[in-house]
Amino acid sequence: MSVVASFVLECARSGRWVRGILALQGNLNSTEVDVSRARIQLASRIFEKQWRTALDMVRTSDVSHVDEMSNFLYECSKSAYVPSDVFNNVAITLLQSAKDNDEIQNQLFRSVVKWTTWSQALELFTHVKLPNEKSLIELDEWLKCSRMFGSINKKRTIDSALMQLNLPDSRGNNLKTKGHSLNKKNVSVVRKEIKGQTELTDVLGALKSGKHLSMVSLVKLAKLATTEGCVSWKLPLSLVMKHRIVDDCNDVFAKMVGVCSPQLWQVALNNFSLNGKIALWLASSQNWKAALIVSQSVLLSDREKYDILSRSLTPTTQLRKVLPPTRATERVYEPTKKAIASMLASGYLLEELQLSAFAKSCQRNGDWESALYLFNRIGTEEFQQRAIKTLLEHSPNVKMEQILGLVDYRKPANTSTASMLIKNSSDWLQALFVFHYILSRGTQCNPQILSALMDAKPPIGVLSTVIEKLKWTANDGILRRMEYLKKNSSETS
């Protein structure tokens, strides 16, 4: 090996890429095998520093150095700095340059397909003159993996491609251990455990030996971490975050973060190309305030946003801003298909319709435990009101403070429930406390609630202060009643 080649290789290993490039001046077009290989290895190491320089250092004639060029293409495909279309053009050019040697062309294809999208893999496959079995298996595995998390149209395209590949399914139909047949449940458990251990062993082995990792392996690890928990989520996430995120796999890794480590939702949003439902779901998995901000930028209908946000800890007051409730003005009691369809279209939940009659029965019979259970299950205004009314009427030992625990930011009281709580207070002090409590939990003040407070007969000075602060919520009737109370108070004194 020449002195120049030896020095360049040492610079590539130690990361002193600038010295290596300076050493190659005057030797970039050298035909010496050692210098050419050293030049390609140096180019493979500098994608994160100068990807344009790395591409300029490689020639189409270098495909004869198949091992070095395979590694170069693999590093190019992984680099987050090389634009996808540039990488695609480079890969096609090099594959076409090797068209006279099937073995080299197939080895280059297997290296380049490990870190591409399924559509890129199919496009690159068309440039392989005579694909061998290894190349077919590599493509087949990636297509089957991509099919698991694709849209209907994407699955149809992949199915068509798989049919054209026409590879026999090598998976066994029976699984036996020590001559004994296992039942279906045990077979499933054994397969999952073996699969998780196999994938993890393959990835760790590749990392230790310096072999090329494939996106297929990382996707499988991510899915196992998400669904089975037999693999830690940290390994696939740490490996994929260092390199280009293949477009097809963004959703897979985002779901893994949302399920296994929702506290990293912002990291995932910043690094993965996410939009629509998956972006909003990821933000809502940890922080409902962030989800509300994300909901303003995603292209989803108000109903879709509401469905996602309602599954998180988003308060009801905020949910109403996303999708204002539109309820029927009156109940339709005829159990007809038309009536049920009308109520569902008006905003009622299916469970609400099914359990509404039972909630009425609980209130009538004083079954406050079942009423509370229904409210915890279906947190709508109707079930809240029935639970509170049942407690007030049939459970005299329950304190007002405990009942107020059913009212919070996520489930504020409506006008009827708020008035009922105020009117059932033991004295005007408790009525005033309940009044301030429900307003602080999201209930909008209105004349009906003010009227309920006035019925509790607080001192005229206290009442006057409350009305003065909330004058904008009072109507003419409240104001006339207030004047009447003031007049009677002055005459009495």
How does the SSE layout of this entry go?
Blueprint: H1 3-14, H2 17-23, H3 33-45, H4 47-56, H5 66-78, H6 84-97, H7 102-112, H8 118-125, H9 133-147, H10 152-165, E1 176-177, E2 180-181, H11 184-209, H12 215-227, H13 234-241, H14 250-260, H15 265-271, H16 277-284, H17 288-295, H18 302-309, H19 316-322, H20 337-345, H21 350-365, H22 368-377, H23 381-394, H24 400-404, H25 415-423, H26 428-440, H27 447-455, H28 460-469, H29 476-492
Antiparallel strand pairs: 1-2
Helix pairs in contact: 1-2, 1-3, 3-4, 3-5, 5-7, 6-7, 7-9, 8-9, 9-10, 9-12, 11-12, 12-13, 12-14, 14-16, 16-17, 16-18, 21-22, 21-23, 22-23, 23-25, 25-26, 25-27, 28-29
In short:
By secondary structure, this protein is an all-alpha fold.
Sum up the structure in keywords.
493 residues; mainly alpha; 1% strand
Structure description:
The protein has 493 residues and is mainly alpha-helical. Among the domains are: 3-165; 188-263, no CATH class; 414-493. The chain contains 29 helices and 2 strands. It has helices at residues 3-14, 17-23, 33-45, 47-56, 66-78, 84-97, 102-112, 118-125, 133-147, 152-165, 184-209, 215-227, 234-241, 250-260, 265-271, 277-284, 288-295, 302-309, 316-322, 337-345, 350-365, 368-377, 381-394, 400-404, 415-423, 428-440, 447-455, 460-469, 476-492; strands at 176-177, 180-181. Strands 1-2 form a two-stranded antiparallel sheet. β1 (176-177) and β2 form a beta hairpin. The longest helix has 26 residues, at 184-209. The model is unreliable at 168-196 and 327-333 (pLDDT under 50).
